Amino acid sequence: MSNFSDALAENAEAVTQVLGHFLVVDDETPEKSLTEAMRYVVLAGGKRIRPFLVTASAGLFNVSESSALRTAAAVEMVHCYSLVHDDLPAMDNDELRRGQPTCHIKYDEATAILAGDALLTKAFEILANPATHPDPKVRCELIEELAKAVGEEGMVGGQILDLLSKQRTLDKPEVTRLQRMKTGELIAVSCEAGAILGKAPEAVRHALRAYAHDLGLAFQIVDDLLDVEGNETDVGKKTGKDKAAGKATFVSLLGIEHARERAEMLAEQAARHLEIFEEKADPLRNLAQFVVERRS
Ligand code: GRG
Q1: What is the DSSP letter of 277?
Q2: For residues 104 and 84, what is the distance between their CA atoms, to the nearest angstrom?
Q3: 82 lines ligand 1 (CB under 6 A)
Q4: Ligand 1: which of 52, 86, 160 to mutate, judged by most atoms within 8 Å of the beta carbon?
């Protein structure tokens, strides 16, 4: 796994550089505190799993490095926006994220809301720019698919279901649907982005979607396990929250042991969808293994 960790770290570094390049603080402007907050959020580390999915899937289709990294940076901006808004007092009210104070604690609530808004819109600005891909149809498709993945049918819809779940205990199909929307759809579009950039045929995209579907669920089950078994220092955020909030999770529904088995089974199943790509898909196979072995 150490070779994979190096590959993940190398990709994270490349994406971080691109993110930094998109967010330049202009000391001459009074609105510079907004850009500072955006930089604080996106340059704070994180595993950069979604950007890795974009560049690894783009690698299957000989997409240019610049197209892949710009798209990866856009996806990471959307992910970071969701973390900032999720941490707000009106949502999860968290003070720690990626091992440092959340955006509203470091700055203030209004700045955190605006930094999240500006990261979301910046992501679409990047995707719409011809430097991301010369073909406008490809850019439109990226924009459409990302918008669907993170809007009411995807992440934001999943977030409202999550907030509502505090009022009523959900069953397994309901938790699965919620998590698929809340975290799975962004993971899926990250995988599909490489195929969109590479104008890949539908059969190939179908295989990537199937991989992403299983990977997303495995990722969420491990997230639930980390909330129970992990500690704040390793995980970089408060743990034990799901139980305290009385929320149904894969762990509360399946138990720790079965939840871990399910995550491992899903990661293996995810890897099997990649057979058509042969060894070219090894980075995606390794990522599936990493997702179930992660400790943060
Ligand atoms: C507020 C619009 C809105 C959406 C929030 C995704 C989400 C919906 C909230 C994030 C809160 C959370 C802990 C979700 C569980 C899964 C998840 C997305 C974990 C964080 O992702 P990682 O582990 O984080 O990839 P890093 O920091 O490594 O990028």
Answers
A1: G
A2: 8
A3: yes
A4: 86
Nearby residues of 134 by Cβ (< 8 Å), 6 or more positions away: none
CA-98 nearest atom, ligand 1: 27
- According to the model, what pLDDT value does residue 245 have? 85
Cα 35 to Cα 7: distance, rounded to the nearest angstrom:
29
Query: For 57-97, what is each residue's pLDDT tens digit?
Result: 999 999 999 999 999 999 999 999 999 999 999 999 999 99
CATH code of the domain in which 206 resides? 1.10.600.10
Q: Number of C-alpha atoms within 13 angstroms, CB side, residue 142?
A: 34
Q: Which atom of ligand 1 is nearest to the CA of 158?
A: 8
The finding on whether 85 has its CB within 6 A of some atom of ligand 1 is yes
Domain range holding 61? 2-293
b/e string for 227-258 if b means 16 or more Cβ within 10 A? Answer: bbbbeeeebbbbbeebeeeebbbbbbbbeeee
Cβ(83) – ligand 1 distance below 6 Å:
yes
User: Domain tally for the chain?
Assistant: 1
pLDDT digits over 140-167, tens only? 999 999 999 999 999 999 999 999 998 8
Write down the pLDDT at residue 1: 63
Q: DSSP string spanning 35-70? A: HHHHHHHHTS----HHHHHHHHHHHTTT--HHHHHH
